[in-house]
Amino acid sequence: MQSPSHIRSFVRRNGRMTPSQQLAYTDLWSHYGIEPDGVLDLNAIFARTQPKHLEIGFGMGDALIAMAQQHPDVDYIGIDVHLPGFGKVLKQIEAEQLSNIRLINGDAVLLLQHHLAIASLDAVYLFFPDPWHKKRHNKRRLVQPDFVELLASRLKVGGLFHLATDWQDYAEQMLQVVEACPHFQNLTAPNSYAPRPADRPLTKFELRGQRHGHGVWDLRYQKIEPTQD
User: Fold this and answer.
1) How far is CA 183 from the centre of its chain?
2) Cα–Cα–Cα angle for 110, 81, 136, nearest 5°?
3) 172 marked as binding residue
4) Annotation-wise, does 27 bind a ligand?
5) Does residue 130 have an active-site annotation?
């Protein structure tokens, strides 16, 4: 499998952390942050062998925190590049005494390529990625064939890939791209979106979109072994 050509799917919008977010980042990053160097031993990082779930682009952390609270028997890795989000999540980790979250500041493609072992993940979540809605920028969207192939290689057979977007044309692209990957089977029906799963946390971002009449499209796939011709 070829590595995906590396076109960044994000812009670093670091923004300004509040004083409490900055304090949390300064005090807690060394405990909950991961600085990847080589292939990560996720069981060693969490000091246990529970399922490992990755959220790509956790934003301000609403879904990540909610999932970690609801499933203490699952270990969550969140990756993003937005510093205020890191500060907010670290504050909540400390306040809720959550031991099952670790954070990475960086590029998800590089993480998958260089720092996660083959078949090391039980689930990957991609909720509301940057839609790059101008047509000339569509090539910067994260969900492209090479990326989906790479992601599939890091999921265990039976693992979950759950995507959601509030941009219809990106939803259509996601559906087309993932349906074409032989490593994934649609958990709803071929070429179909999923009803909003009850276990996907409803974030402030999504609630704001609902108030403006935005639709949301969920897609849920299971990693499978491709059939042999």
Assistant:
1) 18
2) 75
3) no
4) no
5) yes
Tokens 């910067």 sit on residue? 140
Please list the alpha-helical segments (H only) found in the chain. Answer: 19-32, 42-46, 62-70, 83-96, 108-110, 145-154, 168-179, 204-211
d(C-alpha 133, C-alpha 135), whole Å: 6
Domain ranges of the chain: 23-223
Question: Is 80 annotated in some ligand binding site?
Answer: yes
Tokens found for residue 74: 């699952």
Q: Is 75 annotated as a binding residue?
A: no
Token couple for 164: 């959601």
Amino acid at 123: A
CATH superfamily of this structure's domain 23-223:
Vaccinia Virus protein VP39 (3.40.50.150)
pLDDT in tens, the chain (229 residues): 444 445 554 455 567 889 999 999 999 999 999 999 999 999 999 999 999 999 999 999 999 999 999 999 999 999 999 899 999 999 999 999 999 999 999 999 999 999 999 999 999 999 999 985 666 546 879 999 999 999 999 999 999 999 999 999 999 999 999 999 999 999 999 999 999 999 899 877 788 777 888 899 999 999 999 776 5
Catalytic residue among 75, 122, 130, 169: 130
